[in-house]
Design brief:
This protein is an all-alpha fold. The protein has helices at residues 11-15, 36-56, 73-83, 89-101.
Length: 102
């Protein structure tokens, strides 16, 4: 994950990223990403995702890639990596549409 205020002028880097626009919040009570609570939550989530991946790697398969014909191969690889653990076809389709729009 990489964060920046403006997209870099690097087509190769941009083509390998999922770009998620963020909006500034007016809330003043948000915790910083360096807050120990946030770091603990992020570390726990990372460990759970890694464990899930290790336990289910051989069982997971993406039967149909709805965006297969509509997105280029590099983007399709990224899409497949993200969509693989998602069982709901509607959510996979929504993800594919977001990739197309980007």
């Amino acid at each position: 994950m990489v964060c920046w205020t403006e997209l870099p002028n690097d087509a190769a880097l941009n083509s390998r990223c999922i770009i998620i626009p963020l909006q500034e919040s007016d809330r003043a009570n948000l915790l910083r990403v360096t807050d120990p609570k946030i770091e603990a939550i992020a570390d726990n989530a990372r460990q759970m995702l890694q464990q899930y991946r290790l336990e289910n790697f051989n069982r997971l398969s993406l039967a149909l890639v709805p965006a297969d014909e509509r997105i280029n191969s590099r983007t399709r690889d990224l899409y497949e990596a993200l969509a693989l653990p998602i069982a709901d076809a509607n959510i996979r389709e929504l993800l594919a549409v977001k990739f197309e729009l980007q």
